[in-house]
Specification:
heterodimer, A: 617 residues, alpha/beta, 6-stranded mixed β-sheet, B: alpha/beta, Rossmann fold, 14 strands
Chain lengths: 617, 329
């Protein structure tokens, strides 16, 4: 029999969905890694509940992982999946509305039992729903097939059943021409020393692959060619790892120890996990007793000469605000990373949002200016973590770096930068007694140009001084309640932060710098806004994108860019926080396009918005 | 030049005007700490004093060392970060009963639990001074204050019990009216490798005057306190005719005929420290609890770092960037 030639397509979006305990994150991760290694551009979106193991079979317990892989540039995990792997009825119920009409559903038939319908809150078998006629449904008894394939192995039934995700993965590998080798290598490494588990998972993977071949899923076979991307050495990276590495690089670059004080919180804990592995890079991690102690320990370490950083998410940042304010007052280096999630309060711990910008800007008592940066993609977290460290060390004031759950957990291929070439050397403000041979040392003496003070660390002979949260006298740093001095210090701290605008890159614009419509976005929504603006521009529309990563201070040319357009729309995953900031600062009459669902933007909702705004011009 | 010079109290005094109330017990504590540090002999540049918020927490401004006046209750966390980054530094922390046991109770518990090698001086005056006279977590039940006009109904905290509960390895008690005793205790605390807590009975002349009077004034303190000496029987009283005996699992203060009737102090025994923490009529002074050989947090953190470095090479960022699967395009 002649093998049917697979269809070539530009990109495919696949979503794996199952119980929290079904290993969907792992399955998705393997599919992504293999696709990246095969040269596709990819973007991923892990989406899971806050509960570790919500009741089995329920919609609440559904964990999903979506991957968009393509032969062209990929910037988002895709609006709608082309294929859904549903490990149980709840997964089908939860995801069916998202699936592209005519898409493929692979359903684990074994899990479609009346007991599971009940758990999923279903009255009947969803596989028999009439609306499924618009899709191609492939029913496969994944659980029993997996058990059957592993019948020879000396392993309990429960452990055999747990291999079913690899069976499902094997099927999709056949359908999309994926190589098995990278996953086999991963299994061998992961279960090193446990030969039975290695055999079981590899057997399940191959059994799924062969099953798809046997049942002639060839009609569903697609090939996605490697993407034509810039030459170089690539790796896969997620945002939290990139953030951790960006700080390691900054500390190495500046010749300092890196000190992380942190307290576990979703979705930030992975930065703590990653950094705790790298003691041989001079990284010290301190899991503190709470969020407050976490930031305070970092400030203490920073006082002692380390690059002090703290990582958290919204509720944790709220707890840290008094200490962050002390760092503003002391004028010490400190980077605070807020990996944003849905709020207010505990909110949506595992879902993404951009609603902490106002807190970053204003969430402290007194006149307390904060440098605020935002990373635009998983790999950009590396660059922006470095930037945050550079600015805090060179300007002696705290910097808040905003990322979000979407880019923190999402991953993409990354052209490994030539760090020695592409990043400048960080010049710290460290001083010793030798710097004061000819002049008296005052802890709050400033560089007249940048208004930055020097950094004399405890243990340095002759430069003893006291720092504190009380208002300090200009130059000497002694406690002062003098009214004019207080005003001077408030203005000085503000001016010091404002002057950082001279030390950041100019704002870039995608498209022309003048036109009908300017879409403004910031942080983790870049993939979607970039694609949407590009798509509409391809039809000749006069729309441009200003995607911001430096939010305070803003690049000096932002004002000019804003004035070049008839209409400005700020698209953000909140109620209009950047819009408010731009309007109050530039009086630019920007409109908002907002979404607060704990989900990232879809490209098509943005293109529709842009088209409508252009029509209404 | 400085290595040959003998350090004096003056070497540890800053040029700042001291702004505590006239008659405040803090002056004596500051002076004793400066004298103790001069005797310990570390250069002021090798010493850092970290405090929280409150009257006592203004302390760093009056020292010529490095210092940080931080935020309310959080001094233990700042001190921990500083000590981890700079383990050779002699780090002293200043706190009070409100700062340390109320708003900062969590952090105080954890720095003691971790046994970070710093010295903590806890000024206990059983009142909030800087906020002008509210009851504190160590105030006696029934105390009339601005926030308790009908008397406090809170049960007070015992700093010693708190510290023991957190696994303290060094706890001493002293008083602002006895500089010699303070200096001795401060020096012993500094010599201990681990987290040393020193509770100082301190008098607030404005809001809680004479709260510790029976234990601290020269006329009555001999009869109301026991000066503990490791290895010696617990004798006290102006005539040295009273001592501490063990009765019904409790320590009781009584007259004695022969020293063999008395308990011999052994600060290495936590069970004895727990019994000492129950004594309120006659109060034990000195080193109540002193255990050596426990793990010390900052030391262990650094030895773990060294272990890792002895197994792996000093890392470069490229080592990370190129780990795992990489591919060429």
């Amino acid at each position: 029999m002649q093998e049917q030639q697979p269809q070539e397509v530009e990109n495919i979006v696949i979503r794996f969905s199952g119980d929290s305990g079904d290993g969907m994150q792992l399955t998705g991760g393997q599919f992504s890694a293999t696709s990246a290694l095969m040269g596709n551009d990819i973007s991923t979106f892990p989406d899971f509940p806050a509960e570790i193991r919500a009741p089995q079979g329920t919609v609440a317990g559904i964990s999903g992982f979506q991957i968009n892989f393509g032969a062209t540039e990929i910037n988002t995990p895709g609006d709608q999946p082309d294929i859904l792997v549903a490990m149980n009825p709840a997964a089908l119920k939860a995801n069916i509305e998202d699936l592209k009409r005519g898409g493929v559903i692979i359903a684990n038939e074994d899990a479609f039992t009346s007991a599971n319908f009940k758990k999923a809150g279903l009255e009947d078998n969803p596989l028999e729903w009439k609306k499924l006629e618009s899709y191609e449904v492939i029913k496969v008894p994944i659980t029993s097939q997996t058990k059957e394939a592993l019948s020879e192995l000396d392993l309990d039934t429960k452990s055999k059943t747990r291999c079913k995700n690899f069976y499902a993965l094997g099927m999709t590998y056949f359908m999309y021409h994926r190589e098995l080798e990278p996953t086999i290598r991963w299994i061998e490494h992961k279960f090193k020393g446990k030969q039975t588990l290695i055999d079981a998972n590899i057997t399940a993977l191959k059994a799924g692959y062969n099953f798809a071949d046997t049942i002639e899923l060839t009609g569903h076979r697609y090939r996605v060619k490697p993407a034509t991307i810039e030459k170089g050495t690539y790796r896969q990276i997620n945002g939290n790892t990139a953030t951790a590495w960006g700080f390691i690089w900054a500390a190495e670059n500046a010749g300092l120890n890196l000190f992380l004080g942190s307290y576990p919180i979703t979705p930030a804990s992975d930065v703590l996990h990653e950094l705790s592995k790298h003691k041989n890079h001079g990284v010290m991690t301190f899991q503190a007793e709470d969020e407050i102690a976490a930031v305070c320990s970092s400030i203490g370490a920073s006082f002692g000469g380390a690059l002090g950083i703290t990582t958290s998410s919204g509720p944790g940042i709220a707890l840290k605000s008094e200490a962050i304010n002390l760092a503003v007052m002391l004028e010490l280096p400190l980077v605070i990373v807020d990996i944003q999630r849905g709020g207010p309060s505990t909110g949506l711990p595992t879902k993404t949002e951009q609603s902490d910008l106002n807190m970053a800007m204003y969430g402290r008592n007194g006149e307390s200016p904060m440098v605020v940066l935002a990373a635009k993609s998983p790999s950009d977290c590396f660059t922006m973590a470095f930037e945050a460290a550079r600015l805090t060390l060179e300007h002696m004031t705290p910097v808040m770096l905003l990322t979000d759950g979407f880019i923190a957990n999402g991953s993409e291929p990354w052209k490994i930068p030539d760090v020695r070439e592409e990043f400048a050397t960080i010049k710290t403000k460290l001083v010793t007694a030798d710097d004061y041979k000819d002049k008296e040392f005052f802890p709050y003496d400033r560089d007249p140009e940048t208004l930055v003070r020097n950094w004399a660390i405890p243990g340095t002979p002759e430069l003893m001084h006291r720092v504190g949260g009380l208002e300090k006298e200009d130059r000497t740093g002694n406690v002062s309640y003098d009214p004019a001095n207080h005003e001077l210090m408030v203005h000085t701290r503000q001016a010091k932060v404002d002057k950082i605008a001279d030390h950041i890159p100019a704002q870039e614009v995608l498209g022309d710098t003048q036109g009908d419509l300017l879409v403004v976005s910031w942080g983790g929504t870049y993939g979607a806004t970039y694609q949407a603006v590009n798509q509409v521009r391809a039809n000749g529309a006069k729309v441009s994108l200003m995607h911001m990563r430096y939010l305070n201070p803003m690049p000096r040319n932002v004002s000019d860019i804003l004035s070049g357009f008839k209409k400005i729309v700020v698209a953000e995953l909140n109620n209009g926080q950047l819009k408010g900031l731009l309007n109050s600062r530039f009086n630019c009459n920007a409109k908002g396009y907002n979404k607060v669902q704990g989900k990232p933007f879809m490209i098509r909702e943005l293109t529709q918005m842009i088209e409508k705004e252009l029509e209404d011009l | 030049m400085t290595d040959t010079k003998k350090l004096t109290k003056k070497d540890f005094s800053s040029d700042q005007e001291i702004k505590w109330c006239p008659g405040c017990g803090d002056y004596a504590i500051l002076s004793a700490a400066q004298m103790a540090m001069a005797q310990i002999g570390k250069e002021p540049s090798q010493v850092a004093v970290v405090s929280g918020i409150g009257c006592s927490s203004r302390f760093p401004y009056y020292m010529s060392t490095y210092g940080m006046h931080s935020i309310h209750g959080r001094a233990p966390a700042f001190a921990t970060g500083l000590k981890l980054q700079n383990p050779d530094l002699s780090v002293w922390m200043i706190t009070g009963d409100g700062d340390g046991l109320s708003i900062g109770g969590n952090h105080l518990a954890h720095i003691i639990r971790r046994n970070v090698n710093i010295n903590i001086i806890l000024f206990n005056n059983e009142i909030y001074g800087l906020t002008k006279g509210q009851y504190s977590p160590t105030s006696q039940k029934g105390l009339n204050t601005k926030s308790t006009p009908y008397g406090s109904v809170d049960r007070p905290f015992s700093p010693l019990k708190f510290a023991l509960g957190a696994g303290s390895t060094f706890f001493a008690r002293t008083m602002d009216t006895d500089p010699k005793h303070m200096i001795e205790v401060f020096k012993a605390a500094d010599a201990h490798e681990g987290c040393s807590v020193i509770e100082v009975y301190q008098n607030c002349v404005i809001f809680n005057d004479k709260v510790h009077d029976q234990f601290t004034n020269r006329k009555t303190r001999e009869d109301n306190t026991v000066r503990l000496v490791a290895g010696s029987p617990m004798v006290f009283g102006s005539k040295k005719d009273k001592g501490i005996k063990l009765k019904d699992f409790s320590l009781v203060a009584q007259e004695f005929e022969d020293e063999s009737e008395l308990v011999v102090h052994d600060p290495s025994k936590p069970s004895l420290a727990h019994m000492l923490s129950e004594m309120t009529d006659v109060v034990p002074m000195g080193i109540l609890n002193h255990r050596v050989g426990d793990s010390v947090y900052d030391r262990d953190v650094h030895s773990q770092m060294k272990d890792v470095l002895s197994q792996k090479e000093k890392g470069k960022i490229e080592d990370l960037l190129y780990t795992g699967d990489v591919w060429e395009v």
